[in-house]
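Shift notes (night). Ran Scavenger receptor class B member 1 while the centrifuge was going.
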Amino acid sequence: MHSLMAKTASLVILSDFIPSTRRYRQSIADVVSDASMITRLGLNIVIRQTKSEPLVQMTAKEFMFGYSSTLMTLGNSFMSSWIYFDKLGLIDRMYDFDGDYETIYTGEKHGLANIGLIDKYRGSTKIPQWESPCGDVTGASDGTKFPGFVKSNDTLLFFRKSMCRAKALVKVNETISNGLKAYVYHFDPESDDNGHVHEKNKCFCKGPRKCLPPGLLDVRGCYYGFPIALSYPHFLDGDQALTAKVNGTNPDPAKHKSFFVLQPDSGLPIELAVRYQINMALGPIHKIANCERFNDMVLPLLWTEIRLYQLPTNLALRFRMYLSILPVGEKVVTYLLLVGGGALLLYAMYKFLKINSTKARFNTPWIEDEFVYNLDRKLSSYIPDKKGSVNAKELEVFIGGVLLNAPLTHEIHETVMESKICLRSKACATTDMYTGYLIPTALVIF
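Came back to this:
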C-alpha cells in the first residue's frame, strides 16, 4: 500500500522549500495511459532521458504559481495548442480566466430577485464539459450576489470555474449575523455523487474508469484534461476508499465544511467559507516510467479556503439600516398614518353632524322675524294709498295696532331686546320685545 505522509500544518512563507510530486509528469502519464504502446514508449524515453524523478523539492511559491521544467518546455513547444503555458502551478492554473466572461441578470426583465445571477457563461447557458442538466449554469451565483426574496425551502446554485460545475445549496439553519437575519446553507450532499447513488448525476460520469467515487468532483475537463479532482479537505464526507492509501487525514466538519450565511431578502452574503481540496485522481499509470507507486491513487496536493469572515463595518451598518431598521420604521409609520387618518375622519363626521344639528335648531322663525314680516306686509298695503297724507300720529297709531295683534310663537325672555326694523317704506323704529310696543325712531315717506 502506497502512502503519503501528511505533514503537520504550519505557517510557511513563499520562499520555504516543500516536497512535492512532479504534477506535470503524473498528469501527462495519466493522459497517455490509454494511448498506444508507441506513444507510451515515446513518453518513457523522454522521462528517462530528462532524469525526471517522481518527487522534487520546490518553494511554496513554485508549488502554487508554477515552476519550469524540461518536460513542460517540450510540451509547450510541440503541443502548444494543448499546453499553451510553460509553467504548471495549482493556483496559477485555477485562476486562469483568459477568455472567460459571464452575462448576468440586471433585474430589468427577469425581476429584482435575479439581479447578479448568471444568465450565460461564455455565451452559453451551460459549460461545454458536461451535458445538461449537469452543465447548466443559468441562475447560479458566483458568490458575490445570491437570489433575493428566497423562501426557506428554496435551493440555490453556486458556480465557480474551478469547480467545473454549478453545485446546489440547501438551507440547514437560521441565524443572526452582523445584526441581520440570515439563512445558513451547505452544499447539497447529493451534488457530491457522480451517479453511483443518484441517477440524475450520471451525466458527471464519463465512462467506467473515469467515474470517480462519491466525494470527488471530476474537473479534468476544465484543466486541460489533467487528472484533477476536488474534494472537501481531508476527504470529509467522501468515500472511505479515498483515505485507504493516504495517512494523516483528520476530517473535521468545523474546520473543513463549506457554508454560506446569506441575507434572504437581498441575497447578500454575510459570511461564507468555501473549502476544497485539490487532488490528482490518477488512473492505471504503472506502465509509465517512475510512476508505478502512484498507480490508481488519489493524491492530495493542498486544500484552499475562500473566506468572508464578516461585512466591513460601514457596509454592515448600511445594510442593517436598509434591511432591519427601515422596514420596521415603514410599518410603524404606516400604522400611525392609518390610525391618524381614521381619527381625522371620525372627527370630521362629528363636526359635520354637530353643525347640521345646530342649523336645524336655529331654522325656526323667531318672534321678531314674524313681526317684521307682518308689519312690512301691512304697511305695504297701507302706505302706498296714503303716503301723501299720512302723518306721524297716524303712523304711530297704525304701528301700535299691528304690535298689539302680533302673534307670539316663542317665549319672550325678561331681558329687554331691541331690534331695529327697517321697512320698505324706509321707516325705522325700535321695538321693545318685552312690552310689545314699538317706538318710532325715524320716518321717511317717499
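The two ends are 142 Å apart (CA to CA). The longest strand covers residues 268-281.
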